[in-house]
Amino acid sequence: MSRKRSVRALAGAAGAVAVALPLAACGGGGGGGGDTVSVGFVAVGPEGAWRAANEQDVRDTFTEDAGFDLRYAPATNLDQQSQISAFTSFVDEGVDIILLSATEATGWEPSLQRAQEAEIPVILVDRGIDPDDPSLYVTRIAPDNVEVASSVAEWAVTEFPDGANYFTLEGPAGVGVVNERNSGWDSVIGSSPEFVKLGAQTANWSAEEAKSVFETVLRANDNDIQLVFAQNDEMGLGAALAIEEAGLTPGEDVKIATIDGTRGALEALADGRLTFVAEYNPLFGDTLQEAVDQALNDEPVDSYIIVPSLTFDSPESAAAALPERQF
Ligand code: AHR
Q1: Where found in the cell (predicted)?
Q2: Which CATH homologous superfamily contains domain 145-280+312-324?
Q3: In 202-238, which positions are buried (b, 16+ CB within 10 angstroms) versus exposed (e)?
Q4: Mean pLDDT, consecutive 10-residue segments, the chain of 327 residues?
């Protein structure tokens, strides 16, 4: 199986009209000599259970035994500049392909253009970029955030036929998935006047921050809140602690819906502390490797590859999934 790079991967993303331009003779220096393919992974680094599962899955996939030289570069404290520096180093090193999980959606055009000039294909892992220009990358691989969030909203409409006062705990400002999850939620709830949005605030994917944010929100609303839309599991678990500290019962007085589907959330759903969990499947290393091989083998690659995800709407469904849960 040839592992030469081609501009096709880049062109393929621009509406998949691929023009295969074999690059065997071209640039890119030291990466990917012989059979080993060098993969530069511009990663997010420590950021909770979902991220740990996703990045470990990538590292477990692109192993030496599988013919890869994976260079893992987690961001320093989620700082985009550290990611841009790592990206630039990978281009200068001439790796065969770059995987990018962006801590911020904006500001990637110059780096992506530099990779394009160096004819190094780039695959977006989980996070999108803004503006979204598919001509600058091969594909994005991720569950569909809009779809996942609208499944949470559809559950809420069923769970609260007369509506509810709700609050949204958001991920960090500037992260693409936050806007996608809001648009998925709003696409369903937005048209339901019975649902009263009391507000939204970032808690940076953190249980601790979510606890403190939601303590304030409960006080400010005299506990008159029936529903929390938490954009990830950790923030939902933080809200549950705030609810208990206020002398209320999560799952009864206030119902919490989260996104991710990590073990901690399923355990809390099985205990009735969370009420709905939409999975955002982090384990897509195989799909990623397939796209890497396709990109490096002149095969067209769809510009957005959606990873399937499940939903859990009862303690029983969570309890049934827990024994086999890998994240
Ligand atoms: O980009 C995906 C999000 O990043 C997950 O939902 C969140 O838990 C993670 O940190």
Answers
A1: Cell envelope
A2: Response regulator (3.40.50.2300)
A3: bbbbbbebbbebbbebbeeeeeebbbbbbbbbbbbbb
A4: 40 45 44 78 97 98 98 95 98 98 97 98 97 96 98 98 98 94 96 95 98 98 98 98 98 98 98 98 98 97 97 98 97
